[in-house]
Amino acid sequence: MNESIYQQVITLIDSANSQDPTIEEAEGKSWPKELLYSHRMSEMLKRYKSDFDEVLGLGIRAQHIERWKSPRKNYPMDKKGYYQWRTELYKFHANTVGELMKQVGYDDSNIERIKMMVGKKNLKNNPDTQLLEDVIALVFIEFYLVDFYNNHPEYDEDKWIVIILRTWNKMSEEGQKFALSGKLNLPESLVPLIQKSIL
Questions:
Q1: Domain of 150?
Q2: What is the pTM of this model?
Q3: How open is the CA angle 83-86-89, to the nearest 5 degrees?
Q4: Are both 173 and 86 inside the same structural domain?
Q5: Of 83, 105, 121, which marks where a domain is finished?
Q6: Total tally of structural domains belonging to the chain
Q7: pLDDT one digit per residue (tens) for the chain, 199 residues
Q8: CB atoms inside a 10 Å sphere around CB 174
Q9: Would residue 23 be called left, alpha or beta, if left means φ above 0 and alpha means ψ between -120 and 50 degrees?
């Protein structure tokens, strides 16, 4: 791993995400929302696949880079608007981290590789993209599923089963095994629902 330019990009990503105006409390301190998310993504990558290379490390760290700059409310509040927002977000994140890599001297092949990954291209066939999806799902389950559940009391059990299955099916078999291995901190209150959804 080229520590010099790799660490430069990590620092640039963290600097960008430190500007997020939304603050969350975690680990006894206040965090800009996307900085916290990016650190959780990196830590999960280390737990899930410790032999990752530098492009994977950067792609995982940059997955939500400067997400607040493209808020959901800027798009029509319907299904079509949601997918338009998500598609343009993927391009924005991919191009943003690609530019940071270019600044510090990464070659075009590595930049294109990370843009394919962060841009969510060729899921299920591109191992980089699939790894990203695995880590996203694992972080969501461990850190964000409970809050998401509590914020949607209007959803019935059938709706939650669909949501959990959708997340589950985005993961590779390896990711699914990790989730059930005891190495992931499943939200205790939702374990019965998770088991009902996937077993």
A1: 126-199
A2: 0.93
A3: 150
A4: no
A5: 121
A6: 2
A7: 556 999 999 999 999 999 999 999 998 999 999 999 999 999 999 999 999 999 999 999 999 999 999 999 999 999 999 999 999 999 999 999 999 999 999 999 999 999 999 999 887 789 999 999 999 999 999 999 999 999 999 999 999 999 999 999 999 999 999 999 999 999 999 999 999 999 7
A8: 13
A9: beta
